């Protein structure tokens, strides 16, 4: 019953099925996570639709030369085992080619942004 893991699994499955869009239930953290993925180029567009009880996040998926932009997702911190890192100890995803997403005191950030700001936090996931 991990909503973030369900969100990441929905994205991975949509890419494997070669879908153009995927719709997931809305929450603030999922919307921020989708925004970070759009900024990094792993998804094309993110749009929120609907009213409060039935809000959905519509994500347009990105493909480059018929290949999915997102190939691997690893959920690091889980509800049963939380994983934290200081600013200097944030792990690189795929030797720096991927993206590590952290939950910091200033909100969700990528690993590069968190290192620049000198912030550590809970490691949400790694994506490449």
> Averaging pLDDT over every residue, what do you get?
96
Radius of gyration: 14 Å
| Topology order in helix (H) and strand (E) letters | HEHEEEEEEEEHE
Counting structural domains, the number is 2
Separation, N- and C-terminal Cα atoms:
24 Å
| Known CATH architecture of the largest domain | 2-Layer Sandwich
Query: Could you name the CATH topology of the largest domain?
Result: Ribosomal Protein S8, Chain: A, domain 1
Structural class: alpha+beta
Description:
With 128 residues, the chain is α+β, with helices and mostly antiparallel strands. It folds into two domains: 3-68, Ribosomal Protein S8, Chain: A, domain 1 (2-Layer Sandwich), CATH 3.30.1370; 73-127, Dna Ligase, domain 1 (2-Layer Sandwich). Helices cover 27% and strands 34% of the residues. The strands form three sheets. Strands 6, 7, 8, 9 and 10 form a five-stranded antiparallel β-sheet that branches. Strands 1-3-2 form a three-stranded antiparallel β-sheet, with helices on one face. The model has no long low-confidence stretch (mean pLDDT 96).
Q: What would the keywords be for this entry?
A:
single chain; 128 residues; Dna Ligase, domain 1; Ribosomal Protein S8, Chain: A, domain 1; alpha+beta; five-stranded antiparallel sheet
